[in-house]
Write a structure and sequence with these properties.
Helices cover 55% and strands 17% of the residues. It is of the alpha+beta class. The protein binds adenosine-5'-diphosphate (ADP). The site of adenosine-5'-diphosphate (ADP) has 22 residues, from helix 11 and helix 13.
């Protein structure tokens, strides 16, 4: 748009302004010089016609005198008087008697063109206009034949000097040419400046940006302060750089995660495996010499194998959920009933682990949500599992609260465990993330439980977050959308 304006509209505008100014200045000067009223177009297209008009009044007077009172043309006073009026109009009168000039208003000028003047009777005096005589200098000549009182042939001329007019018209043309050239140069300069500022400079910045990216520096930011196409290009480039950076960062993070996962898995699988090996060898070597001991060994082997199975299960589930290949089966469920059953099921197990469960259900009867019951169970198990796993008090207290918050049901699960350091809280829902404290402890765990839970809750259009105080306890809260009746 700007380029269009600079390249086309601006020179045209400038040309018009310049041409207008020059023409009007020249026109004024012509008008002033010749004391004539005429418009610019007329002056330019037919200047001689205008000058013709200048002397028309006096010419008519002379014509009348020549036809009616030729003796007047013999009177010097009469001619002098008329000639005086013509001086302002760059004109003068000359009177020829036979071949002699008996009167001339301007000797020098007359001698210049004398030889070009026609003889008596050769002028067509019916036509109102002058003859253009081009001697050394241009002149406009009007003539009228008459007979002197003594019968001699006479011609009276009105001669107008065009010398002043022609240079003005020439000046008009040359000034227009010069200003045209000036405008061309000016426009070219502005265009170059504009191209440099708005194209070359940002292009250079872009080029540097590209070469930085080529060399692997994805932090080099390309900024443009213009709104035009180049500015847009810079913005797109910047967006591309940010995306590329994100992509590469994600890729690096993913690779890091995979490495960490492999190291975690090998560590987490190694611990129960070593135990299984030890107990199995104990059985073979006869270290377990009584049936009671043997049964204890076998029980331990089974429990360690179970731990391993859970870990492997969690891993394979996470892979599926990460690729969005979990086939959810959403149904409308009565959330009150669902949690009542849940508490009944896990309550006993928790009591055996010395954890007291306090259950507050504030939901109305018949509160329905749309959910996959099995997956929500997985979320609850993960959260409760953590509450037990990270319990550091002799007696665990677990509160489960259900609230109605309008379009959602809010589930809060609070424990009185070890708590999570403030700096770790934002990351505990990331895959493979384990707070340092728990990684260093022998608690086990893959760092996948909460990542899985978040994915499941988000797939239910809900939210999950944690509030925790180190040494006091942790509350994990999640929301599930209430049913609008569209799913049965
Ligand atoms: P993990 O298998 O390590 O428990 P999770 O994804 O379930 O993995 O949890 C991530 C991290 O969050 C844990 O390693 C632990 O540091 C912290 N965490 C989760 N729940 C609790 C809790 N109730 N109390 C203390 N820390 C917790």
């Amino acid at each position: 748009m700007t380029a269009f304006f600079i390249m086309i509209a601006m020179p045209i505008m400038l040309l018009f302004v310049a041409a207008g100014t020059i023409i009007s200045l020249q026109t004024n000067s012509i008008q002033e010089s010749y004391d004539v009223e005429a418009d610019t177009i007329q002056i330019i297209t037919n200047p001689i016609q205008i000058l013709n008009r200048l002397t028309r009044g006096i010419y008519n007077e002379i014509k009348l005198a020549a036809l009616k009172e030729p003796q007047k043309l013999e009177s010097e006073t009469f001619i002098n008087h008329l000639n005086g009026e013509l001086i302002d109009k760059y004109s003068f009168i000359a009177v020829r008697k036979d071949d002699e000039f008996i009167y001339t208003g301007n000797d020098v000028m007359l001698s210049n063109i004398e030889k070009y003047l026609q003889r008596f009777g050769e002028y067509n005096t019916d036509v109102d206009g002058g003859m253009y005589v081009n001697g050394r200098s241009p002149f406009l000549v009007k003539a009228q034949d008459f007979y002197f009182t003594d019968g001699a042939e006479g011609t009276v001329f009105i001669i107008t000097d065009l010398n002043t007019l022609f240079p003005q018209i020439k000046a008009l043309a040359s000034q227009t040419m010069i200003s045209f050239l000036f405008i061309l140069i000016f426009t070219a300069l502005i265009l170059m400046l504009w191209i440099y500022r708005s194209i070359l400079k940002p292009l250079n910045v872009l080029r540097i940006g590209m070469s930085q990216i080529k060399d692997g520096d994805l932090d080099y930011s390309v900024q443009s302060d213009t709104e035009d196409e180049i500015g847009q290009l810079c913005e797109d480039f910047e967006e591309m750089r940010i995306r590329l950076k994100e992509l590469i960062d994600n890729r690096l993070k993913y690779e890091e995660d995979i490495k960490e996962l492999i190291s975690n898995i090998s560590h987490d699988l190694k611990t129960p495996l070593t135990a299984i090996q030890g107990y199995a060898e104990g059985l073979i070597d006869g270290v377990a010499d009584s049936p009671k001991k043997q049964e204890k060994y076998i029980q331990t082997i089974l429990s360690k194998a179970n731990d391993m199975a859970i870990l492997v299960d969690e891993l394979s589930f996470y892979t599926k959920i990460d690729c969005n290949t979990i086939p959810y089966s959403f149904k409308e469920i009565d959330i009150r009933e669902y949690f009542d059953d849940c508490i009944e099921e896990i309550g006993l197990d928790l009591e055996m682990k010395n954890v007291e469960v306090q259950y507050y259900n504030e939901l109305n009867q018949n509160t329905k949500v749309v959910a996959d019951a099995e997956q929500i169970k997985r979320v609850i198990n993960n959260i409760l599992g953590n509450a037990v796993k990270y319990l550091d008090k002799p007696k665990g207290i677990l509160q489960l609260r259900l609230h109605d918050i309008g379009a959602y049901v809010q589930v809060e699960i609070e424990d009185n465990g070890v708590g999570i350091p403030k700096s770790d809280i934002p990351y505990i829902f990331d895959r493979f993330y384990r707070a340092d404290a728990s990684r260093n402890s022998k608690k086990g765990g893959s760092g996948l439980g909460l990542a899985i839970s978040r994915k499941i809750i988000e797939d239910h259009a809900g939210k999950i977050w944690a509030v925790s105080e180190l040494g006091v306890g942790t509350t994990i809260t999640f929301t599930i959308k209430k049913s609008d009746g569209s799913v049965k």
